[in-house]
């Protein structure tokens, strides 16, 4: 008699409850897609200030970790150190060279100082080398003449490989 009750219990147990994991798998797939989409493999994090509006692009390349030059409407920075002031997006005549109006003296001095220090470090340390790369974050409302002056001065200081930071259109 006890055996018959046990058999009935086993029959009910097998037929009464089945685990439905379809919705759980859906939930994990959604989480996985979200995490993969939001995961960034770039070692460089560029966060423009509130005043700086970068141009938009569809470029899929990631930024590289190099010297950063930041240009807003009000100031010019090298690695978050203020180098020069701008007047409504224009360089004052006092910081450009009279014989060469494309040359920005304070920018050149700062970049040259950093290039010399990087080259001296490369002589002592084999893992470090001066590659002449610079990443520029420039406000999209600034005229091209400002960008041209900065690129010209950067190249005179030894930074020939110029990259521009942009925002994706997402």
Explain what this protein looks like in three dimensions:
The chain is of the alpha/beta class and 170 residues long. It has two domains: 2-38; 56-168, Nucleotidyltransferase, domain 5. The protein contains four helices and seven strands. The protein has a five-stranded mixed β-sheet with strand order 4-3-2-5-6, covered by helices on one side. Strands 1-7 form a two-stranded parallel ribbon. Strand 3 and strand 4 form a beta hairpin. Helix 3 (105-124) packs parallel to helix 4. It is elongated. The protein starts with a helix and ends with a strand. The mean pLDDT is 79.
Biggest β-sheet: count, sense, barrel?
5 strands, mixed
Give the overall shape, derived from the CA principal axes: elongated
- The separation of the N and C termini measures 71 Å
- Cross-sheet strand order for the largest sheet: 4-3-2-5-6
Which properties best describe this structure?
7 strands; single chain; two-stranded parallel sheet; Nucleotidyltransferase, domain 5; 38% helix; 2 domains; five-stranded mixed sheet; elongated; alpha/beta; 170 residues
Describe what is shown at a glance:
It is built from 4 helices and 7 strands, in the order ααββββαβαββ. The relative contact order is 0.17.
List the helices and strands and how they pair.
Elements: H1 2-16, H2 22-38, E1 56-57, E2 67-71, E3 75-78, E4 81-85, H3 105-124, E5 133-138, H4 144-156, E6 161-164, E7 167-168
Parallel strand pairs: 1-7, 2-5, 5-6
Antiparallel strand pairs: 2-3, 3-4
């Amino acid at each position: 008699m006890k055996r018959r009750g046990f058999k009935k219990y086993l029959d009910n147990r097998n037929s009464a409850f089945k685990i439905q994991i379809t919705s759980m798998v859906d939930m994990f797939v959604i989480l996985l897609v979200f995490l993969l989409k939001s995961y960034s493999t770039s070692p460089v994090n560029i966060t423009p200030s509130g005043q700086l509006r970068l141009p938009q692009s569809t470029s899929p390349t990631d930024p590289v970790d190099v010297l950063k030059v930041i240009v807003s409407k009000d100031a010019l920075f090298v690695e978050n150190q203020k180098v020069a002031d701008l007047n409504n997006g224009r360089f004052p005549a006092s910081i450009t060279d009279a014989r060469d109006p494309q040359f920005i003296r304070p920018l050149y001095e700062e970049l040259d100082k950093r290039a010399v220090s990087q080259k001296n470090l490369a002589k002592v340390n084999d893992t470090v080398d001066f590659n002449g790369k610079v990443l520029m974050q420039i406000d999209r409302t600034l005229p091209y003449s400002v960008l041209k002056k900065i690129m010209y001065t950067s190249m005179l200081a030894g930074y020939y490989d110029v990259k521009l930071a942009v925002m994706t259109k997402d």
